[in-house]
Amino acid sequence: MKKGWIIALGILAFIIIVILIIVGWGVRKYNGFVTLNEGVNQAWSQVENVYQRRSDLIPNLVATVKGVANFEKDTYTAVTEARAKVGQVKLSAEQLNDPAAFQKFQRAQDGLGSALSRLMVIAENYPQLKANENFLQLQAQLEGTENRITVERQKFTQIVQEYNTAVKKFPGAIIANFSGFKEKQYFKAQEGADQAPKVQF
Fold first, then answer.
1. Up-side HSE of residue 159: CA atoms within 13 Å toward CB?
2. Is-contact 130 124, C-beta < 8 A?
3. How far from 134 is each of 71, 73, 80, 83, CA to CA, in Å?
4. Fewest C-beta atoms under 10 Å: which of 71, 99, 124, 196?
5. Residue 193 has pLDDT above 80, yes or no
């Protein structure tokens, strides 16, 4: 009888140890997903910050352009409208796994970037604008902001890749699916970015 109890207790202890190992692994995986998800949210917050900085610079830039040059009205109207569209399209960290919402956000930001690029190209035709110190400072700030946007988008892409890889890898994918951790979206290149620009002299 004693031998039977010892064997039963040994099997029970083994089962408890296996269960504790599996539960411990599951908890570690879950906590890892939480950490990665928070990393994505933090990186997204930085992307939003630099986009907001760009958006905040635009009214001053447009006002300076209007005040210095008899500028093409449709150009700064396009910038103003693009900025308004960006203001209407908000994307929270919780929506980063929604491809449609993410694409809508990216299209609005790309539209604003294109409108700003046109504004800067046209500004080159106005010597009095190029000599205006306010305009030059705003232009430098805008260029710096565009560089920050690129850097923050790159960081965001890296952390999303790390997160998405963890969410998709087996056996962690089981915990991720059970816990509601879903794949996040990446930024994509602007349409036509794969085509070399045509330069004419």
1. 22
2. yes
3. 16, 20, 19, 20
4. 196
5. no
C-beta separation of 43 from 155 below 8 A? yes
Q: Give the orientation angle of helix 172-179 with respect to helix 133-168, to 10 degrees.
A: 110
Instruction: Report which of residues 136 and 160 the model is more confident about.
Output: 160
pLDDT tens figures, 148-188: 999 999 999 999 999 999 999 998 888 898 888 999 988 87
| Type of residue numbered 152 | E
Mean of per-residue pLDDT scores for the chain: 83
What SS3 string covers 141-173? HHHHHHHHHHHHHHHHHHHHHHHHHHHHCCCHH
Residue 43: CB atoms within 10 A of its CB come to 23
User: End-to-end alpha-carbon separation of the chain, Å?
Assistant: 99
| Angle of CA points 138, 140, 141, to nearest 5° | 65
Contact 22, 171 (CB under 8 A): no
Pull the structure tokens for residue 103: 């694409």
Q: What is the amino acid identity at position 112? A: L
CB distance 55 to 86 below 8 Å: yes
Amino acid at 57: L
